[in-house]
Amino acid sequence: MFEIGDKVVYPMHGAGIIEGIEVREILGETQQYYVLNFPIGSMKVMIPTKNVEELGVRQVISGAELGRVMDVLRNNSTSLPDNWNKRYRINLDKIKSGDIYEVADVVRDLMIRERDKGLSTAERKMLNNARQILISELVLSTSSDEEEIATLIDKATLGEDGE
Length: 163
Prior knowledge:
The chain is an alpha+beta fold. Helices cover 47% and strands 21% of the residues. It has helices spanning 52-55, 66-74, 84-97, 100-116, 121-141, 146-157; strands at residues 7-10, 14-26, 29-38, 43-48, 58-59. It has a 5-stranded antiparallel β-sheet. The chain is globular, with a radius of gyration of 17 Å.
């Protein structure tokens, strides 16, 4: 069970902070909800407390795990199929998993593909979404701001961070 003030990740939406726990009656059913505020994008979501596990809601990674995320971004080997439909499904499953390392994989692979061959409109949208999810979690797990994290991701993925 999470508490007010906890920083959590809601797959497909990104990282936010639990602002409250409320009991609401919706469609005749009374249940408890987490009120989740996403600082990036200024969105609020209510998640039934009983569904958090099946939805994949989890704690934000610690700042110490940033290095592992950066290692994933720096790894330039990608083995995605050339067929865009298969590639899209694989990447969508990775994003839905809620695993930050899988999301970092998607960001890296799509940024490399964009640089080398370009992306379709759907894949560009997916890249932007995955990048925002990644940025939102890294902002909440470190003391960096959104712009610093975005620059860090871009440099690591494009091999410009000097490592």
